[in-house]
Amino acid sequence: MPVLNQNRCVVTCPRCGNRQPGHGTFYPNVCRSCGYRFLSGFSPEPVVPQRTITCFDCGASLHVALGALTTLCKKCSSHIDLRDYHITSTVFQHFKTQGKVVISEKGCVHDSNAVVGEAVLKGIFLGKLTVERTLTIYPTADIQGTFKAGKLVIPADTRFRWPELIRVGAAEVSGELAADLKAEALVLLKATARFFGRVQASRMVVEPGAAFVGVAEIGVGKGASLWA
Known about the structure:
Rubrerythrin, domain 2; single chain; two-stranded antiparallel ribbon; 4 domains; about 55% strand; 14-stranded parallel β-sheet; mainly beta
C-alpha cells in the first residue's frame, strides 16, 4: 500500500484542469472549481471536455460536458436545457436554453420570449430575445421586438439598422451598423466596418479602414450613464 505523501504542492484537477494548492501523490483532494474529488498524481477517469454556463435562475457558474443535453444546477437544483435548436420553418415557441438557436433564412419564430446561450439570426424573429453570450445578425435577418446580448456581432456583409438604443456587453462590427450603442465592455470596429450613431463603452478599438460617423463616449464605468 502506498505511503501518503502529505507535502504541500500544486495539484491539477483531472476533470476541469484547475490548479490549486494540495498534497502530494495519492492524497485525496477536492477541486475548488468544479467540486470533483481526486487523488493527486492519479487520474481515475479521462478528462472530459467541458464548457462553463450560468444558471438562469440563480446565476451560479457551472461546468458541464460539451456533449451534455441537460443538467441540474448544483446550487438551486433547477433544470437547465443545453440543447441547440435549428429553425428552418415557422414556429410559435418559447426558448430557454444555454445552447445555440439558429434561425435559417426560411425560419420564422413568432411571438417568442427566448432566453438562449447563443443565437444566429438569418431569418425572422418576432418577440423578446435575450442572448447570454453571442448574437450574430446576418443580412437576411428581420427582428421585430426587442433584444439584448452579451456580445453583438455584425458580419462583414450585414447592413443592420435599429431605431432604439442597443444595450450589450460588447460588440464586434465588421459590416454596417446604424444605431445608438451602449456596451459595458469593448466595442470593436473591424477594418470593413461602417458605424453611424452614438457609442458609449468602457473601451473602443477602430481598425484602420473602418468608418465611424457619430459621437463616442469612452471610458464610462459599468454603473455610469451619460445618456439614457
